[in-house]
Write a structure and sequence with these properties.
7-stranded mixed sheet, alpha+beta, globular, binds zinc ion
Length: about 700
């Protein structure tokens, strides 16, 4: 989940200022003394500013109505007018000593809906002080902020009794006052924004070798806190070893009072619903922890493209998938998201990525960036790739960096020029589409040679690729080669030590490319996700089943005006222009679904289904499956038990990611679920009569470099 999401969605103006940042931004010291009155929604503050020597004047932005005054030091304050939702000031210094500003007023923007693509919205506020809690950042204008500058901070916050404040860096130093509590946080390293979060939090802590783990919950829950404290220790250790020392004194999980997924420096602000989802500990949470290296450690130079989401996806989401043996699946899903959501009209080069605002920008900014980095990793090797990431981190920590800095680190560690690779992959839209042809085996005096041709057949110019070829051999061994393909086409030849069985191009989805249709197994979501389609009822079914199927179909069509019902007897052929559901064993188009495929055997006379996982026949079983037929998704549902049909109507839409399902009994209960294996794609060729499955071992997870 993105940091700076609020800034990006709300402030094109401020972003333009960030974009204009100079090579070496000014470093401003803030010593902030702040009093917060949650009931009134007010802040009263003094900020002692340490400005760079010789800077005659300094521009900053502040929330309107705070009426800043110079209370110490020699300087004049000029109000320049409104700038977006903030006020623009210029501080003209008349000496070299620090200048202290005093200001006070109300910051209270109630939560509003922010649109996030079609049908999706989330809550947000540009800054709020309320009795429910306080959420303020640089964009809120709660302290004098210039988005071009970096700053360090020594922050003291006075709050009512029972309240606690959280900010970046080291803390909290808590002292009890006559009226309330004082909380101090400090961070000496340059920061992009200063955060102030507060609420009546329950605090939990645990020491780790890489910084203190902290948890702030809005109600006591020691079990929940324990899970996060332990996970924090685990991830801080893993990433410190993999990339470089964790850059902050603590890492905190902070519970927000609305649903957010923000990664701030040394803490994450997650919503109350999100933190209680059990899988978050293994998905969003490590992603937010890792943002302290990428995004909140090395800062993003937005002008040249946001590389941090793709890199964070690589080393969090993808790495955890790899550790679970699901790396190829994760990569295929990334390719599929690009294929499903990105069109010529909404595609953009990686250098233009700022932040996610819908599924398409996520598929490019997160997914494609991740895949481009994955190709780099495969090409350089894990050791070199990790060494380059360590260098990139070491040399750019607490500075703004871009793709060019990443490229330089990769070049320095590999000794290779990556100019062309980065130019083409980060500067252009689109994806390569591969074709395999002319495959033959030559028996020569010196042995067997496998020959063939690889091509990039997309309309756009070729991309630089190292295409993985995998040959399964008759003796059970596997031969792997990478074939460079930087132009339109290349002919390859592989000497073979044994007779070949099958040849696969990129079977583990290591390349960013357009998937061949057969590589993306048909799943029920293709039907459930379609706005229009056709449901064909079986004219020849017994009356009770026919009635059950009709009710199921009517339930599914309700609220989906693009879906139509028809009797199979009223059609001469299957339409090829939209997805189709076939209902019933006696459906006259069932033979079309069964024909010309090898993934299952359906015997409509015996009412039996043979799957790799077993055979299912008889009245007890209800079956559902989907396959690609003539370029369209065709689903089929077969049951002999009318009492199972209402349950199927209710349950099947929850199994969208599967290709086939077996239910048992009238309830009915799920017994088997699975996805079709990827085979017989245009990027594979059978080379003998045998038909073995792919047994290519998964790549070693990136953390393998630590072993
Ligand atoms: Zn993120």
């Amino acid at each position: 989940m993105p940091k700076l999401l609020r800034l990006l969605s709300l402030a094109p103006l401020m972003l333009a200022l960030v974009a204009a940042a100079t090579e070496h931004p000014a470093l401003i010291g803030h010593r902030l003394d702040v009093r917060i009155d949650p009931e009134q929604g007010t802040i009263a503050a003094r900020d002692r500013l340490d400005l760079p020597a010789g800077a005659g004047s300094w521009d900053f932005f502040l929330h309107p109505g705070l009426d800043p005054q110079v209370v110490a030091g020699r300087a004049k304050l000029v109000r320049l007018g409104a700038q977006g939702h903030l006020e623009h000031f210029r501080l003209v210094s008349e000496g070299s000593a620090p200048v202290t500003l005093g200001y006070s007023g109300r910051i209270h923007h109630p939560l509003g809906e922010l649109r996030e693509g079609m049908g999706s919205a989330r809550q947000g506020s540009p800054g709020i002080i309320s009795d429910e809690g306080v959420v303020l950042d640089g964009f809120s204008g709660w302290y004098p902020q210039n988005p071009n500058a970096l700053q360090n901070v020594d922050l003291r916050v006075r709050l009512p009794k029972g309240w606690m404040a959280v900010s970046q860096g080291a803390g909290p130093e808590v002292s009890l006052l006559d009226e309330g509590v004082s909380v101090r946080w400090r961070e000496a390293q340059p920061q992009e924004s200063i955060y102030l979060i507060a609420a009546p939090f329950e605090r939990y802590t645990k020491a780790t070798p890489h910084g203190e783990a902290q948890v702030y919950l809005r109600s006591a829950d020691p079990q929940l806190a324990k899970g996060y404290l332990e996970a924090t220790g685990r991830y801080l250790s893993m990433y410190s070893r993999l990339i470089g020392p964790y850059p902050y004194a603590k890492f905190a999980l902070v519970e927000n009072f609305w649903d957010t997924g923000f990664g701030m420096p040394s803490f994450t602000l997650l919503g109350p619903r999100v933190i209680r989802l059990p899988f978050i500990l293994h998905t969003s949470f490590p992603h937010e922890v890792l943002h302290n290296w990428w995004g909140n450690g090395v800062y993003v130079d937005y002008e040249t493209g946001n590389w941090s989401e793709g890199l964070t996806a690589s080393l969090a989401d993808h790495l955890l998938a790899e550790q679970g043996g699901r790396g190829a699946e994760y990569r295929r899903d990334s390719l599929r998201a690009y294929a499903d959501y990105v069109r010529a009209g909404n595609d953009f080069p990686l250098r233009d990525f700022r932040g996610r605002h819908d599924s398409a920008s996520q598929a490019v900014g997160y997914g494609k960036t991740f895949m481009v980095l994955h190709m780099l990793r495969r090409s350089l090797g894990d050791e070199t790739f990790v060494a380059a990431l360590r260098r990139f981190y070491r040399e750019n920590l607490f500075q703004r960096a871009g793709f060019d800095d990443l490229r330089r680190a990769m070049e320095q560690e590999s000794g290779r020029s990556l100019e062309d690779f980065f130019r083409r992959w980060t500067g252009r839209t689109g994806a390569p589409e591969l074709a395999l042809s002319n495959v033959m085996i030559d028996q020569t005096s010196s042995g067997r040679i496998l020959r063939g041709r690889l091509e990039q057949v997309q309309a756009a110019a070729p991309f630089p690729l190292q295409v993985p070829l995998v040959v399964h051999l008759a003796d059970g061994s596997i031969l792997e080669r990478q074939v460079p393909l930087s132009g339109r086409s290349t002919d390859f030849e592989l000497p073979l030590p044994a007779a070949p069985v099958r040849l696969d191009v990129d079977p583990r989805f290591d390349l960013f490319r357009t998937l061949a249709p057969e590589e993306s197994p048909a799943t029920l979501s293709a039907l459930f996700g379609s706005e229009s389609g056709l449901i064909l009822l079986p004219a020849d079914a017994p009356a009770d089943l026919a009635e059950g199927y009709r009710r199921l179909a009517e339930a599914w069509c309700e609220g989906s005006p693009g879906w139509k019902l028809q009797m199979d007897s009223d059609r001469k052929a299957l339409s090829r222009d939209r997805p189709v559901w076939l209902l019933g064993w006696s459906n006259r188009f069932l033979a079309d679904v069964v024909a010309d495929q090898s993934q299952f055997q359906l015997d409509s006379a015996q009412r039996s289904l043979h799957l790799p996982k077993g055979d299912y026949a008889g009245k007890d079983f209800s079956l559902a499956l989907v396959r690609n037929h003539g370029g369209q998704s065709v689903g089929w549902i077969g049951s002999l038990d009318p009492t199972a049909l209402p349950g199927l109507a209710r349950k099947l839409p929850h199994y969208g990611k599967y290709s086939y399902l077996v239910f048992q009994g009238g309830a009915p209960e799920i017994r088997i679920k699975g996805r079709w294996p990827v085979q017989d794609s245009s990027l594979m060729v059978w080379l003998s009569d045998r038909r073995p499955g792919l047994t290519t071992p998964p790549h070693r997870p990136l953390t393998g470099v630590l072993d």
